[in-house]
Amino acid sequence: MNGATKTAIQFTLNDAPVSALCGPTTMLLDLLRDQLDHKGTKEGCGKGECGACTVMIDGRAINACLFPALEVEGCQVTTIEGLVGPRGKLSPIQQAFVDHGGIQCGFCSPGMIMSAHALLTSNPDPAEDQIRAALRGNLCRCTGYVQIVDSVRGAAVALRRTEAGQDAKGGPQS
Ligand code: FES
Ligand code: FES
Which CATH class is domain 7-82? Predict the structure, then answer.
């Protein structure tokens, strides 16, 4: 890669415009972690097999370890950092993973949560088989998936309540 021509790209990262220089073999995961200091996205296998590196590009969950950075030119990229609310408040999906025990060692969690976020963005009330299908590319060696599926279900309920103007427990929002 040394000496390879670098190209300037612009895209939106977690609602903020960013610019970066990338070579033809730079992967989005390396751009995010090494150049842009967004280390919430994890590297597991580096081969598209574990889902630890999942981020959203224009609303779709993708493996950042295999996605050429040059291809995010003009795109909206969302990482786990982009889900956190004001003053570090966890998003409903992150909170549901905490509440339902979907986080054990936590290494797979950012990718798992981003896949769940992509699912719930397009399908606010998924059935269990739809949740399991959406998480098929995300490997977790800790939880056996029961708590993770519960977490996504819990997140779906919390998000629907938020949409309806209720707090996460079903009461009126203050
Ligand atoms: S690190 Fe990208 S799929 Fe494993
Ligand atoms: S919580 Fe440990 S690998 Fe998923």
Answer: alpha beta
How confident is the model over 20-37, as a mean pLDDT? 97
DSSP calls for 15-36: TEEEEEEE-TT-BHHHIIIIIS
SS3 12: strand
Q: Is 85 in the pocket of ligand 2 (CB under 6 A)?
A: no
Characterize the bridge pairing of strands 54-57 and 76-78.
antiparallel
Class of 84-163 in CATH? mainly alpha
- Cα–Cα distance list, 137 to 9, 10, 90, 116 (Å): 28, 28, 24, 11
- Give which of 131, 136, 56, 138 is closest to 103, Cα–Cα: 138
* Cβ(27) – ligand 1 distance below 6 Å: no
Query: Is 140 a pocket residue for ligand 2 (Cβ < 6 Å)?
Result: yes
- Compute the distance from residue 167 Cα to the ligand 1 centre, in Å: 35
Place of tokens 């969302």: 78
Residue 173 reports pLDDT greater than 80: no
Cα–Cα distance measured from residue 109 to residue 147, given in angstroms and rounded to the nearest whole number: 12
